[in-house]
Amino acid sequence: MPWIVFVFLMGHMAINQLSRQFANTPSVVDITGAQMVMVMKLSAFAWNVFDGTLPEDHLSDHQKDRRIIRHPELLDYAGYVLFFPSLFGGPAFDYNEYRGWIDCSMFDVPGTVDPVKKPPTRKKRKIPRSGTPATWKMTCGLLWILTFLNLSKWYSPDVLFTDRYMTYGFLRRTFILHMVGFTARTKYYGVWFLAEGACILAGLGYNGIDPVTGRISWNRLQNINPWGVESAQNSRAYLENWNMNTNKWLRYYIYLRVTPRNKKPGFRASMATFVTSAFWHGFYPGYYLAFVLASLVQTAAKHYRRNIRPFFLDPLTQKPLPNKKYYDFASWLATQTTFSFVAAPFIILGFKDSLEVWSPFFASPAKVYLRKMFENRSHEAGGRLSRTNSTDSINGIRQEPVLGVSADPGKDINEAIREIQVEVGKARKDPGKKGSQKEL
């Protein structure tokens, strides 16, 4: 049943996204953004109801916490689906979180917390005062939107298609491309900060209290971490801090759901997550250019970190050497400039226009420099430093895709080939079944 719900939701949204794309009328109100949030909430709801029918030993801790044993009444369900502060731009959340907010069980203070440190409430309300954190989020959101309005005068996507842009040097073109991406991100920073602030003001952003300090966390529905994105030194950190609730949805309701119980996620889980994330965003060619290239960047970044980072760590203690600050700066610069390049089609959307924006890089001095580096490397010989664990693979455990971007597409392809070979081998051993050797 959950998969039927999921296919219906994605199919209905796909029709609306294609209609909007082919109509191409910016003056018409676009509902697909709100529908994307609705797909996350409703598909998660279907899985939570399904989990309520399973025995506890078949469920993870996350599933136990989110499962729905008793179906909600129509009014409760409508209130969850149409929760106004997050209706148009997110963030999405699960029904049990909404239910805990409605009956105020979310705000129950553990007995381990000193009564003196319990959060202050207004009169008989159980919801702690949230005016200050909500105002802070609103202020930050308005500042981000003001930043977008001012920067878009100079760094709108249109600047990338001017004749003057091609007359600039390579470094200046790179800077402009980065600023166009940064300007586009500030719009999302502003919208998501305002939506999160509204949820905090309502109380739904409450995420517990520190028993030692008595400090309240209001980050339950945090959807963006601008500092985490702008200061990221690797691709995984960059993606993990962007659209964080979508990452959670893809992980808990796609990546882990297509994986059989008691088995590790493999190629099928990665591919299902990639396809879902791509279709969920829409059908503009720019999305797929960005996703495919981001997967390759993930792989390159992982090998870069494994093979270059050891030069800046003590070989015995693995502690940073004094010169690691140069590695950190280079990693930050490489991550930011690379993702400015990767994300450009995500902003431009069109296939031809995306390739036109990408073309200056390949015509730049970087091409000659990279070719020289490759030739020098091909003539090198000698030992190789031991690898260190990257953020894409910890203790040999496969990491789930972030925003649908595979951490290792090469490994996924190899696993797919092995699975096909196994199926072909089974068919050859049993020619009586459909798909025998003769039929193959």
From TrEMBL:
It is found in: Membrane. Keywords: Acyltransferase, Membrane, Signal, Transferase, Transmembrane, Transmembrane helix. The keyword Transferase applies. One of its GO terms (biological process) is glycerophospholipid biosynthetic process. Pfam families: MBOAT. The keyword Membrane applies. Coiled coil: none annotated. PANTHER family: LYSOPHOSPHOLIPID ACYLTRANSFERASE 6, PORCUPINE. This is Uncharacterized protein. It comes from Xylaria grammica.
